[in-house]
Amino acid sequence: MWNTLKWSLLGLVFITAVSLAGVAGYAINDNSGSQASTSGSGEYAILNEIQDVLQQDFVLPDNVKPDVLQKGAIDGAIAALNDSHTVYITPEAYQNGVDLISGTFDGIGANVDQDPTSHEIIITAPFRGSPAEQAGVLPGDAILTVDGKSTQNWSTVDAVHAIRGPAGTPVTIGVRHPDGTHADITVVRATVAVPTVFSDDVRDASGAVVPDLAYIQIQQFTDQTVPDLKTAIQNVKDKAYKGLILDLRNNPGGGLDATVKVADMFLDGGTVLTSVDRDGNRTEYDAQPGVDLNIPIVILVNKNSASGSEVLSGALQDRGRAKLIGQQTFGKGSVNHLRQLSNGGALYVTIARWLTPNGTLIEGVGLTPDIKLDPTKEEIQGLPGPQMYTAIDLLRSEIDGTPFTPPATPAATPTPVPTTSSP
Fold first, then answer.
1. pTM listed for this prediction
2. Which residue among 307, 309, 313, 334 is the active-site one?
3. What is the pLDDT of residues 325-334, one digit of tens each?
4. Which is catalytic among the residues 261, 303, 323, 332?
């Protein structure tokens, strides 16, 4: 069942990010049933030799613990790859990820990822109605401490393992908000249902409902997203809406199968994405002929829109089915799979890059919106703002055939200078 999920270590980013629900994976190929081979000979024999010398000679013998040295060696080997999406998953973290398959987990209800520059652990999105959201955790929060322990040099798996816990128990996370302020937030863990699709009224700047436009938000892509979205789309058709605002802001990605099936609902066949492996072999993933919804679409994106949300946005943008409004997206354009290890852990390995239908590489770059518009403070907190109002104006111009004038001055939110942690 792992092949339907994305191991999210940001962007839910084991494909993009790790969910604090657990670690679920965006695997095109899943070799979790097979174990990677081990070897103690050759170049790697020197590691055992170093451990022996340290155990015999190091001035602080109590610090020479085999499990600590092993983790350090593993972390160092993976860090040398310079690929934040290839991740070692401890046996404990691997076991914790199993809960997500059932659609529920005990935790605070948020997705995390690792900033590729500062290496900080970042909240990409708290789930709607989750303990994290209710306690005041915001998208873009940098996690600096967990129960007083510094997160410096932590991986996303380390963060997930520390923050998850039994329902009803508290955890205190020290965060730096996107505006640069700091806070210690205590969150009481709960059993959280993994959210998928949300619908709401579209309201203009005056607060009035726009009666002929629909709004659907996809928070991440799981198997449940497909039937949930079909239900939401049927509602759009039943009410004869003329345009759709599809909100993928803070969506860290998810399962590839689910993402392609979602694209099916908006595309009448054709390429959704192309993957290119280490040998240059190309595999195309196509939408099925037929379309569930054929009305104008505007997609809202931001810097936390990653992986699967970039697949969908890139496909609809390249195919002329949707315009994008918001920020440059995260840039998670790698394909990963899971290899189970002999110790009960796993290695989440980057095996390919994916391209949009027009051949655009997303990894490390992201998608460029048709209309660039930074979020206001209110929008960061999940309230309506200029991005939504611009989407309304753009859809109205397409529906009515009237001219559209992009906003002259995007509303910008100051971005704090990130604190660089040691590699």
1. 0.69
2. 307
3. 999 999 988 8
4. 332
